[in-house]
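tool=predict chain=A
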Amino acid sequence: MFESPFIKTWRIDHTHIDHYKHVNNVAYLAQAEKLAWSHSNALGLHFADYQDLNRGMVIKRHELNYHLPSHVDDELKCATWIVDCDDRLTLKRQFQFICPERQKTVFDALTTFVCVSLDTGVPKRMPELFKNAYGDACISHRNQTA
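tool=predict ok
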C-alpha cells in the first residue's frame, strides 16, 4: 500500500484454521497484534517502556477487510505502517497481508490507537518517547518533510 513497510512472514498452520477450512478471522487479528508489537519493538519501544512511563497505546477502533481466504501452508507477507500520528493522543496503523504466491492482498486493516494511563485507562498525552518513535515512523510526517 505504501513505501517502506515493516514486514514479517506468517506461515499458516492448523492452529489458524477454522471450521470453513481457511484462516479464522481472529487469527488475522492476532497476527496484526503481533506485527504491531514487533514493529513497536523495532522502533525501540517495548512494553517495559510503557510500564515505566505509565502509558500505553490501546485500540479504539479496528477496520478489518477480508479479501481472500488463506489456507494451511500459505505463507503471507504481513506489512504495517504508522499512517497518522497526531503527537498528542492518537495514531493509526495500517496493515496489509499479501499472499506472494497469488500476488494478492488477502487481508488489510486500519487500527486507531489512543494513548492512555496504564493505571486508570484515562486518555493521556503521549510521552516524548512515543512521539519520537511513532512520529518519526509515521509516513504522513515523512511526506510533510519530503
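The beta strands are 6-11, 55-66, 75-85, 90-99, 104-117. The longest strand covers residues 104-117.
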